[in-house]
Amino acid sequence: MRLKKNDTVKIIAGKDKGKIGKIVKIDPETERVIVQGANMVSKTMKKKSQQDKGGIMVVEAPIHVSNVALVSKDKESKIGYKLDNDKKVRYAKKTGEVL
């Protein structure tokens, strides 16, 4: 997977299409990412202790990586790899910016 934690991405499909946020968590096995402030769902939580309240919590749900695109200099871009002084680096193909 070419996306990394803290990359800024734009959601290109789904109910939150057009939103921009940072990647909080990545699950490489299912190829899904959690984007900060996007794909919010209501989840019912159980009471765990006397002090901890249960109830309905609003949390971020995972999104498939095919539904997000990297944002570099306010443009959506694909990610490529190139050698820079014998070191492999990621770069945005559209802008050429090294990530």
The main pleated sheet reads as: 6 strands, antiparallel
Radius of gyration: 17 Å
Per CATH, the architecture is Roll
- Class per helix and strand makeup: mainly beta
Separation of the first and last Cα atoms? 15 Å
Compute the number of helices.
0
Overall shape: elongated
Largest beta sheet: strand ordering: 6-3-2-1-7-8
**Helix amount:** under 10%
- The tally of domains stands at 1
Strand content: over 45%
Looking at the structure, the CATH topology is SH3 type barrels
Unreliable segments of 5+ consecutive residues: none
* String of helices and strands: EEEEEEEEEE
> Mean of the pLDDT scores?
89
What's the CATH class label?
Answer: Mainly Beta
The beta-strand count equals 10
